[in-house]
Fold these 2 entries.
Entry 1:
Amino acid sequence: MGSFLDFFYALANYSWMQRAFYTALIVGIVGGIIGVFILLKGMVFLGQAIAHTAFAGAALAILLGIEPLYIIIIFGVIAALGVGYVNEKKIMKEDIIIGVIFTFFMALAIIFITLNKQYSTDVNAILFGNILLVSKLNFVVLIITLGIVGVLILGLKKEYYLITFNSDIATVSGIPVKLLEYLLLILLALTIDVSLKAIGAILVFAMIVTPAAAAYQWTFKINKMLLLSSLIGVISSIGGLFLSYLLNLSSGATIVSLSTLIFLFSFIMSPKRIKTGFTTAECKFCRHVINGESYCLDEPECRALDIPHYHDDKGIIILKKDIKPLSTPTKHKHDKEEEK
Amino acid sequence: MQLKQESNNLTSNRDHSDVIVCLKDVSVAYGKNIALYKINLDIEKGEFIGIVGPNGSGKTTLLKTVLGLIKPIQGNIRLFNQNIDGKIPREIKNKISYIPQFTPFDKNFPALVEDVVMMGRYNKIGMFRVPSKEDRERVKHALELVKMDNMAHRPIGHLSGGQQQKVMIAQALATSPSILLLDEPTSALDFKMTKNVMDILTQLNKTYGITIVTIHHNLRIIKEYTKRVIAINKTLVYDGSPNDSQFDEIIDEMYI
């Protein structure tokens, strides 16, 4: 287990390992937090388009021989504003925009890379990322940017929650919806841009979506979802860093694979899905879906009205057969038919 | 409790010349399509008004124009005796609540009933702040008003359509509004639940003096619950009592 101890030795003694550790920690936390609102708002694909624009920015920077980070950030923010504008004005359908922008910027990126006659290892680093090679400059920018993103998103939590719930109600109640939507896109672009070097352009978006999607499976409370999402983000990023070091694998790919495993586990074990199995049960009498407080409220003619088919406090249904009827239900027409 | 007091103040100051919504020659267009043409409308404090009209007649557009979600191409809007030109000022927004057309919630949306009602108070709480004890009291009270307080901790997606609609009413009430605009609040509900929701609205109107404007498709419900009905078909075609014989004629004409 030499390399196991190596990991902690490096962590204690080398600044590049400490940078990697803190990068993993903060990308996990902030990616998890912003991911919750991206997921609930249904902006997952818009974010994917932004990630690929950032890659084109990186390719251009390498061609021009400038520090990629600045160009990436400029490209990302412009992409966020452009995507937001096209989406707001409903110029075309969302999936068409994404299909067009996404491929165009990939094409641009490829042109920039091929213009650059000698294949640079930098391109590789941007595409696949390496959390162990995060430079000092990149680290400082990452900590500051993600710190600001985290504070802003948590500070505006209520507003974003209401916007994801119903943006018309949010507008009427006086929340500057358009402004906040643009801000969310810009914060998303910044999160992607500064994390690009650590996780890689292809995979960085998984750090935002996957932990939130996993957390979504577990809870009905927004605060709990935010907490779980950043926790899952941290577990996968730090766990991934550790595993990639131990097994000598690509760090970005290991981190994303780990978070996907957590997502799969959450999806299979999700109490929501298990509950759904019950809640979509049909009422035997009115063939209506049993839900909520469920005295077959939706169906006033149902003769099972006087048989309680309840949920208990945790939302689990106590099946009808477990409860004695309060009174004998009158029979349906179709019951009589069945008897025949 | 405070909601009650505020509302009582409202009712005590009630004056029949109190016009809180006033539209003058308001026209709205989507591109080149005229959606509403020269609408003139006064709504007084404490009224219970039904809006009817065929699909695509501009009912929702009318509500959204009053709410400032759509800008008219011409005409003048006054809310609470203030000319609205562009953005609606915050103190007026606080007096108006809106319940959009019912769309069923994603079953797994991470929100409890009390969270949804609390959203109604977000604009009063303000950005970068957390709800206070008073806010929670208001939420509880709003849920009591619609008799949903026993379900405060249920996920919103697990309720039936009627229960969800009552939660939306509670959310609108949490702001302690003077006027409540509803877009087909009962379109997804059966007759029993429809009456239940309309009874709650009537009670809010009578007890707390909240002005209610509701779009409705069911003429039977309109006749039973409202004293004034507005029929719209791109322009205002009727404004008066729903039990007038002239109204029946206009309805026949409009829907044939």
Entry 2:
Amino acid sequence: MIASAKEGFWNKLQAIDQRILYVLIIVVVALPLLRPLSLPITVTSATRTAYEKVDEYSGPGSVIVIAYEFIAGNWPEMGPIAVAMTQHLFRKPDIRIILLAMGRDQGPILAENTLKYIDEMGKEYGEDYVNLGFFAGAEAAMASFASDIPGLVKKDYYGTPIEQLPVMSGLNDLNDIDMFLCLWSGTPGWGEYLRQWQTPYGITVIGGTLGINGPGAQPYVSSGQLKGLVVGLRGGGEYEKLIGKPGEATSGLDAVSTTHLLIIAFIILGNVGYFAGRKRTGGEV
Amino acid sequence: MSLLKGKQIPIGITLVVGLMMIVNYYFGAALPAVKSTTTLIQNWTVIVAAFALIIGLINISRIHINHLLKRSKGQWFFSLWCLAIMYIMIALGLFGTTKNPGYQWLYNYVFLPVDATMYSSLAFFISSAAYRAFRARNVESILLLSSGVVIMLMNAPIGEIIWTGFPVIGDWIMSVPNVAAQRAIMICVVMGSVSLGLRTLLGMERGYLGREE
Amino acid sequence: MALISHQSGLLTLIIICGAVLYMIYRARQGLESEVRRVAGIDVIDEAIGRSTEMGRPVHITNGLATLYSSGSPQTIAGLSVLSYVAKKCAQNGIPLITTIYVPETIPIVMEMYREASVLAESPEWFDDYNIRYMSSHRFSYATGVQGVLQREKPAASFLMGSFMAEALIFAESGYLAGAMQVAGTAATSQIPFFVAVCDYTLLGDELYAAGAYLSQDAVQMASIAGQDVGKYLAMILLLVGLILSAMGSDWLVNILKL
């Protein structure tokens, strides 16, 4: 009786209603957002390297391109990275910033969203920065931009002819761009820019991407094709700390900590139930 | 007429266009005519794909209008909502462009939150997968689970508070075994895609044209 | 600017293509190549058989990559699997529901359904209601597929193509619907989720080999053997590069950058 009761317990534990797990997830995500734990955030070498490289390649007179290659659904994770890195660049004096997208049609809207969160530090639209909008064609558009900017770019996101935008003057091809900040969440994204921009032109690229893309992008950091990489909400929080402007990532990292602990607890509990159940049934599942 | 009914024409087009793309990639600088032709073809592709959206629109409309007409139980009101919101956004976008205040409102206050919600629902699926499916059945799965746990604790600020070794080990896992495995998979994927591409160009891979046997 | 771009890449491509063509030539001469069994492909028939016995439909989806993107090989490979699955479902008389993200594949899938119904001599099997375009937006597509899995409760679900975040949504929804799931993708970020949740997973180049494997044509199988030459070449370059780097030489790196 006792043996079968214990068997029943382990089987029940393994077949627990999913909704109990979901409620626990909701609780551990919501609680730290409502009552912050303010856990300290240490800046890792990866994010610090990305920050330093952005500093190094955005000196006075440089021209920077930022590509917003993610979708609205990625905003909770990519938004803080985009805001922090864009803010970092907007603080730089005497630089030209070009915002665009070639893989994701939502890019220009998300670029506009990003600008709402930053202090533009007196930079003027058209003089110091411009939103060129979305260029359809992914790799074809990237190849065209790289070889002939005036040939591809006729007007900005708002329909203003390029001739009326001093920020674009003198830019002929990718050799006139000093640094490329690639913010991507999937495909089209970094892979396409790697083939059409980084490999043929050797342009300096700093990346920002989702946590799930981090492992896949590591080979490019190791090989130097990506000079720096900011990954996930953790990377966004670290970058916010580096620029001294805590934002959504900083406030969200407490929830990341509690949620990760809960997931680990689920893995351990699930395996305990699995092995205990196996032991009871003599090794059969 | 048998030539039109057979697969020879699509295979022939695939071979010619595929070869042009390859020649353009490697010899484009020396052959400006090929470069301009392939650019033109790539532009056509984008235009054709845009027209394909109309086919998609017709497909969705047929399916959901069918549900509406049949008053499919538990479905017809969702179909009504889907069609209504789809055509409203199309109308606003077409006649007012994406900068139309109505389109912007629907995008910022309906689409964006719903999109983020769907992405966030992954947290629930990961939790149920973690509980149910992540089992340490053998050596490989033990390695997978333990490295996963270390990486999770590396990414969470609380990991360093528990033990300062987690970020160090996690960093090593990301920089060494992870990079090695990613490179290996990338190389294998590239080899596979070259082989698939060659079979497609030669007309041997015809599965995407439908089975003949 | 050099007349030939990416010279080292061109040379590598010539070597690999040469190897594949040589293996195809050998197969045409009657010298068959041995290709290891891939469990995820072998089980396709079993999954369809399961659906037939249970009287439930089969579901298949081909992922996110458009036909003009860098992920298009995954979509082409997925379509090859789809045509095979369509043929088998038509023979067994069970519905096949295809959920679509890439609208330009709609006519291709329709043609596959039509041909499958003709080959099976059951024209009534063709029902274009089962070809369902969801959306060209990722999470709208994910929601739609999730709904199909939960409402239609297929007994087998094939996820063949390029996927991103929605991979786990599909896999979990398929599990909750009680479907036997076979997934195949070259997207390295999603492989772990498929491996953990699905019954069988095709990793990377196994998906690309699926079309050739399912055809059971010796000549096509030989092309799978040919691609192994590329892998041996990569291993040799790695070893040589390792030795040269240890000696402080950048010679091979500079050659490969050409």
